[in-house]
UniProtKB/TrEMBL annotation:
The keyword Heme does not apply. This is tRNA/tmRNA/rRNA uracil-C5-methylase (TrmA/RlmC/RlmD family). It comes from Brevibacterium celere. It comes from the Bacteria. The active site is at C421 (nucleophile), C421. S-adenosyl-L-methionine binds at Q305, Y333, E355, D394. The keyword Aminoacyl-tRNA synthetase does not apply. One of its GO terms (biological process) is rRNA base methylation. Keywords: Methyltransferase, S-adenosyl-L-methionine, Transferase.
Length: 463
């Protein structure tokens, strides 16, 4: 066991006592006064961990290699359930795979409270509520992105790596996606598979250049309920149509890197979008999702709330915050209109929606059929906000930011309903909104990304 100081270039093994939870699904420990963010740990444990880099002068990052004194909240790593023969090699993105589901929600609530306190000086003790009917936390994703390795095998990326770990089925997926037998698929030339499931149909987007053979294999492997879309070949002249998803600088391969979003490309909460136009190999580019009795059209590669219960849950919670006498609602970052349409229909209000993705606005206009609804394509941070009593906002992880919070303070709105998937940017924006005169009426956390480090919040503010 090394007792020498660690640096980026010299990994070391440390014995650590794990303290509280930290952002990103890690836990905090200390080594010779230096903070260590440890992946794969549970608070209260004693572990042996290997450093994986970090700024040695300020903090270290490490991964558990052996648990010396386990927490009672530790469970066998659920990622092993997705291993193919020859596995298991573990992949990234299921930060709480080794933690009891209920306890993972408590850890998320502690991180949320900590960020609200540190950034916004708020003394709140929010809980993180389970989605209705959640039991295992393993079957919720209606949107799944998989990488494809050089041999054409679908898999997940290893943590902080481009290495593809092949999997037998899509992790955390809803049953309809989970039953697709990935271990049998070979799609050489493909770079990424994106699955989306709606009411009773699904779509698979194949990115990269798989050629006709692999696409035929995919067609045979999937039932008729699945549409298949493929990227147009590079150089076909059919690139992005230029409609901007409006997420500069945001971007992961999912909920966080959305600067290159085309109107027909993914605009998930952080995810990088596709770059090329899609061709329908079979089926349709559009899916229909029914939420609380209302039908929503959404493109297979357009933004949609990922947890199968999220659309109805968020729509209900947002609508409940809208006063019955509301005459006008503005829905910022409205996507295909899910939150604003539900609320406007309930109280009979006029609706304005603003969203960066042109294709989403086209769908929103269809989805708002029968309502007094007006939608505009544009960047929220550059928009003049329409006069309204209530503003709903559901920004990407980057949050609203100073330009938008300033517009909200200048607007005539007396109620804000802020839906967020990032506690840190929420806290920053709440600080600005409170300083400008809004008061927090309620703040609820929801575990809409079970067994990952992410959570959703809905905050109601009034003035
Ligand atoms: C988290 S999604 C919310 C969508 C919608 N509220 C829903 O529940 O389906 C965020 C949306 O904001 C859009 N967006 C991101 N940055 C934007 C910006 N600066 N201006 C306008 N829209 C933006 C994205 O295209 C995406 O549709």
């Amino acid at each position: 066991m090394s007792e020498t100081p660690t640096t980026d270039s010299a990994p070391a093994e440390l014995e650590l006592l794990i303290d509280g939870p930290a952002a990103g699904g890690t836990c905090v420990a200390r080594h010779r006064g230096q903070v260590v963010f440890v992946a794969g740990a549970v608070p209260g444990e004693r572990v042996r961990a290997r450093t994986v880099g970090g700024k040695a002068a300020t903090f270290l990052r490490a991964e558990v290699v052996e648990v010396l004194e386990p927490s009672g909240h530790r469970v066998p790593d659920r990622r092993r359930g997705y291993a193919i023969a020859g596995g298991p090699r573990l992949f990234g993105g299921m930060e709480f795979a080794h933690v009891e589901l209920a306890h993972s929600r408590e850890l998320k609530a502690q991180v949320l409270a900590d960020q609200l306190a540190r950034i916004a000086h708020l003394d709140l003790a929010p809980t993180v509520e389970a989605a209705p009917g959640e039991t295992t936390g393993l079957d919720w994703r209606t949107r799944v992105q998989l990488a494809v390795d050089a041999a054409g095998r679908p898999g997940m990326l290893a943590a902080r790596s481009h290495e593809v770990v092949p999997v037998a089925s899509a992790p955390l997926a809803c049953p309809e996606i989970a039953e697709v037998a990935l271990a049998d698929l070979r799609l050489p030339g493909a770079e990424r598979l994106e699955f989306a499931w709606a009411d009773d149909r699904g779509a698979v987007i194949v990115r990269g250049a798989p050629g006709s053979g692999p696409l035929s294999e995919l067609s045979l492997a999937l039932g008729p309920q699945w549409s298949i879309l493929a990227e147009e070949p590079a150089g076909s002249g059919r690139g992005s149509n230029g409609a901007d998803g409006g997420r500069p600088g945001v971007g992961r391969s999912g909920r966080r890197s959305r600067g290159r979003t085309s109107a027909r490309s993914a605009s998930r909460r952080g995810g990088a979008a596709g770059h090329r136009q899609l061709r329908v190999v079979r089926g349709s580019h559009s899916l229909t999702q029914t939420v609380l009795g209302r039908r929503f059209e959404v493109a297979a590669d357009g933004f949609w709330q990922v947890h199968r219960q999220a659309p109805s849950l968020l729509s209900s919670v947002v609508t409940a915050a809208v006063p019955a006498d509301t005459t006008t609602i503005t829905d910022l970052y409205c996507g295909v209109g899910l939150l604003g349409i539900g609320a406007a229909a309930e109280v009979g209000a006029r609706l304005h929606g603003i969203e960066g993705a042109r294709a989403a606005i086209a769908a929103a206009r269809i989805n708002a059929d029968g309502l007094d609804a007006h939608f505009a394509v544009g960047r929220v941070d550059a928009a003049d906000l329409p006069e309204s009593d209530v503003v709903i906002l559901d920004p990407p992880r980057a949050g609203a930011g100073p330009a938008v919070t300033s517009s909200l303070l200048d607007s005539g709105a007396s109620t804000l309903v802020y839906v967020s998937c990032d506690a840190a940017t929420l806290a920053r924006d709440l600080k600005a909104l409170r300083a400008g005169g809004f008061e927090i009426e309620s703040l609820r956390g929801f575990d809409l990304f079970p067994l990952t480090a992410h959570l959703e919040t809905v905050t109601v503010l009034r003035r």
